[in-house]
């Protein structure tokens, strides 16, 4: 298995944008062991690729991801697949911590482990057809993909517990209301609207974009005084970069900046 050639996903890169598509539309992009391994490989490659500024996670067909492919795991097909270990569940860490900004573009079903993957991204946008559900308790599992770590940071501790302990489907409007997603678009315009967000980020300074992502990751782990010291050092360093100087000139000259650094 080589980066970019997979059975259950499609990984494509154009310029500074990487797109990872869950590619089992005939099974609503349900997760298998093979998909887990391929996700880890592709996300690892994206995280190490300094040219990637933005990564979009989406599903092929009508759905994002409903979680595990339950039929696959009950009809014996999983026995022919790879054995997984703890390290094979690190895609949530990769999505959350990679230097690139990660975006979950959600349409149709988003549940279970797919819900966890979406929560791990920096941004979540949804089509009006999107439907969400934690769903773990309904199939007698405690859950995976770090939802209890990421979800309270998005919707608050009490709401996160409610969504896990009392699972049920909710729509894109409710996801927007509780701050699970930041924007909701009509289905017909969804791809174009996602592309507009992606292009806006991809056009930003690579140095500033990566620095901003690093600031958020550092802030999660540090006390205020330590974080301010690190943030200030990064700010002073980036402010001296060619990107910042070009952005200043472009602003004064009322033109679009041309960034070169990676």
Please describe the topology of this protein:
Blueprint: E1 9-14, E2 17-22, H1 33-48, E3 54-59, H2 70-74, H3 91-97, E4 101-106, E5 109-111, H4 112-120, E6 123-127, E7 131-133, H5 147-155, H6 157-165, E8 170-171, H7 172-177, E9 183-185, H8 190-202, H9 206-221, H10 224-239, H11 242-253
Describe the structure.
This protein has 262 residues and is α/β, with parallel strands linked by helices. 45% of the residues lie in helices and 15% in strands. The protein is built from eleven helices and nine strands. The strands form two sheets. A six-stranded mixed sheet has the order 1-2-3-4-6-9, with helices on both faces. Helix 4 crosses helix 5 (147-155), helix 5 (147-155) packs across helix 6 (157-165) and helix 9 (206-221) packs antiparallel against helix 10 (224-239). The longest helix is centred in the N-terminal third of the chain and has 16 residues, at 33-48. The mean pLDDT is 95.
């Amino acid at each position: 298995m080589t980066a970019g050639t997979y059975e259950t996903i499609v990984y494509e890169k154009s310029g500074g944008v990487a797109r990872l598509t869950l590619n089992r539309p005939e099974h609503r992009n349900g997760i298998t062991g093979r998909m887990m391994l391929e996700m880890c490989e592709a996300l690892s490659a994206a995280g190490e690729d300094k040219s990637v500024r933005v990564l979009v996670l989406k599903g092929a067909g009508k759905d994002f991801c409903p979680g595990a492919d339950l039929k696959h795991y009950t009809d014996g097909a999983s026995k022919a697949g790879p054995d997984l270990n703890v390290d094979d569940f690190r895609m949530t860490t990769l999505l959350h911590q990679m230097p690139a900004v990660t975006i979950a573009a959600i349409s149709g079903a988003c549940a279970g482990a797919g819900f966890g993957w979406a929560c791990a991204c920096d941004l979540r946008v949804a089509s009006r057809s999107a439907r969400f559900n934690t769903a773990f308790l309904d199939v007698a599992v405690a859950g995976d993909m770090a939802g209890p770590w990421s979800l309270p940071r998005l919707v608050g501790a009490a709401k996160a517990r409610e969504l896990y302990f009392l699972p049920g489907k909710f729509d894109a409007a409710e996801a927007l209301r509780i701050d699970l997603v930041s924007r909701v678009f009509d289905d017909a315009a969804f791809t174009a609207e996602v592309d507009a967000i992606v292009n806006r980020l991809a056009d930003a300074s690579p140095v500033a974009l990566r620095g901003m992502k690093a600031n958020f990751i550092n802030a999660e782990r540090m006390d205020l005084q330590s974080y301010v010291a690190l943030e200030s050092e990064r700010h002073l360093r980036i402010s001296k970069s060619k990107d910042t100087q070009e952005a200043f000139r472009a602003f004064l000259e009322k033109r679009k900046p041309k960034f070169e650094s990676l």
